[in-house]
Design the sequence.
């Protein structure tokens, strides 16, 4: 469990943790839009400073953020290789035994890398500082206006919260099964390819069986307590937007406007 | 001594917000051929401790020796794999580990992983299934269509098929009816009689009283008792101090004492107790 950093809540109780989840989601969307504006390196410079200072304010460790970047590393390398072969504009930077590497290939890759890194940093900031349940409450509230267009806001939020709720359970379960199979001599890390397939099967089949069982049990338990997705529900936890939320929205909007202006004029 | 644990510590997720010390400098030993019960409250570190015995986890501090194999902190798991065959570990609710199409195949899975030939694995599997009380009519059935108790028997057969020298059981009777639980326990008792060292995590002091020879008690990652069962029940009140349910026999002894009836105050055997009351013997 300790190996998985992506999407994990870290309770450091910072200023960002205490913000309203709805406002945090909106802020994240704004920052995402800013990331995708073609504001060249100045814009990304500003955004990087913003992202790094947000991490500092949130009291998260940089090691944790780096950990969540790890899964995309391979993709980035792959992208660089593809770009080197595909993009053939700009001036030649290096000549590797007849393979010409053009400047635009490097720039394009750099842009995508920076965008991806910023994106992951920003989303990690959201998920690391917001409890999964608060996050779904926020999503439900933000989707509420779309109920008029028959968007099942509550059902979506319920599905997301159940899915989120079961991530740690499934991780725990898979670790337990892995240990049980390891006790029977399964080795997930080495062996021939057909041995590996059996090893993975020995993990996946039990995991599926128990997941379906859990799903059924949960559905029964919800029904036994009279759950109906269409019923009008009240909430124990009431979200409240306070001054600090407006301040955060204002600051993020300023960043968005600055980046937008840069993108427009540069 | 088949297992010697020396100042073993284990910490989950070290250096993070979630860091948690499950075991703190645990020193204990387990005798060859014994039936050792490991008891303690939830979260006392029992499961973490037994997972060290077949190197599913390696210590973050200290060391242990299992059947001559010395394991220290951060050791490579690869060289410890042979230990998995010597020490069979049955997890709590082991029925979740079943995955093959037929019961026979599932029980053969373990031996095949350790390089036993298919024919040998089949005969070993059949033997183990008979041992847990499942006859040949079960061989070709899917493990998923069995009842909970039968599934558990299949899973245990899957571990027995490795013919381990040490069998570690994590609450093997949890969720079974009294009858199923009694027949499961007598299976382990038979295995123990034929020379297998048994280590069992349990919350049921009655099982400790009836089947175990030795007791190791953990509390918050520390060993608070280790020794013979008789010492544990006759000379300490630890089970009361830690709020465990008193076994009926001990409750009866307390009542007898109150009623000033003379009996053998040291026996942990129901029949011997009855005999001593009959004879009016006071020891």
Sequence:
């Amino acid at each position: 469990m300790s190996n998985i950093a992506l999407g994990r809540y870290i309770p450091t109780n910072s200023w960002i943790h205490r913000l309203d989840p709805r406002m945090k989601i909106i802020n994240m969307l704004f920052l995402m839009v800013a990331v995708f504006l073609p504001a060249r390196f100045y814009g990304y410079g500003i955004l990087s400073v913003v992202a790094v200072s947000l991490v500092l304010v949130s009291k998260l460790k940089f090691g944790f953020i780096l950990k969540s970047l790890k899964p995309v590393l391979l993709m980035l390398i792959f992208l660089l290789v593809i770009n080197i072969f595909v993009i053939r504009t700009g001036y030649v930077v290096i000549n590797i035994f007849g393979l010409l590497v053009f400047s635009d290939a490097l720039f394009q890759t750099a842009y995508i890398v920076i965008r991806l890194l910023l994106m992951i940093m920003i989303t990690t900031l959201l998920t690391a500082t917001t409890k999964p349940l608060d996050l779904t409450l926020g999503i439900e509230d933000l989707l509420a206006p779309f109920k008029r267009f028959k968007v099942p806001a509550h059902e979506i939020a319920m599905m997301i919260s159940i899915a989120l709720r079961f991530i740690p359970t499934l991780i725990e379960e898979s670790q337990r099964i892995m240990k049980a199979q390891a006790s029977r001599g399964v080795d997930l890390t080495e062996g021939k390819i057909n041995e590996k397939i059996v090893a993975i099967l020995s993990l996946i089949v039990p995991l599926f069986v128990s997941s379906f069982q859990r799903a059924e049990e949960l559905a029964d338990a919800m029904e036994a307590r009279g759950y109906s997705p269409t019923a009008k529900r009240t909430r124990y936890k009431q979200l409240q937007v306070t001054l600090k939320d407006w301040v955060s929205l204002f600051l993020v909007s300023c960043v968005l406007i600055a980046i937008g202006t840069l993108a427009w004029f540069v | 001594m088949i297992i010697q644990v020396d100042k073993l510590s284990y910490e989950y997720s070290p250096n993070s917000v979630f860091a948690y010390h499950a075991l703190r400098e645990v020193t204990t030993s387990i005798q060859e051929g014994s039936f050792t019960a490991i008891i303690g409250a939830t979260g006392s570190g029992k499961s973490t401790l037994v997972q060290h015995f077949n190197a599913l986890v390696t210590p973050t501090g200290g060391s242990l020796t299992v059947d001559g194999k010395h394991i220290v902190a951060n050791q490579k798991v690869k060289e410890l794999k042979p230990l998995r065959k010597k020490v069979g570990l049955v997890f709590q609710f082991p029925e979740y580990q079943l995955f093959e199409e037929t019961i026979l195949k599932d029980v053969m899975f373990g031996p095949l992983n350790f390089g036993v030939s298919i024919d040998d694995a089949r005969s070993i599997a059949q033997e183990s299934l008979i041992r847990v009380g499942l006859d040949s009519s079960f061989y070709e059935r899917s493990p998923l269509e069995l009842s909970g108790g039968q599934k558990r028997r299949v899973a245990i057969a899957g571990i027995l098929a490795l013919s381990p020298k040490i069998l570690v059981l994590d609450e093997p009777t949890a969720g079974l009816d009294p009858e199923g639980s009694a027949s499961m326990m007598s299976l382990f008792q038979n295995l123990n009689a034929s020379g297998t060292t048994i280590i069992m995590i349990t919350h049921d002091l009655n099982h400790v009283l009836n089947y175990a020879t030795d007791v190791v008690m953990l509390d918050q990652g520390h060993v608070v008792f280790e020794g013979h069962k008789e010492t544990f029940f006759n000379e300490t009140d630890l089970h009361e101090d830690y709020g465990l349910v008193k076994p009926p026999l001990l409750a009866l002894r307390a009542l007898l004492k109150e009623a000033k009836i003379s009996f053998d105050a040291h026996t942990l055997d129901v029949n011997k107790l009855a005999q001593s009351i009959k004879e009016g013997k006071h020891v």
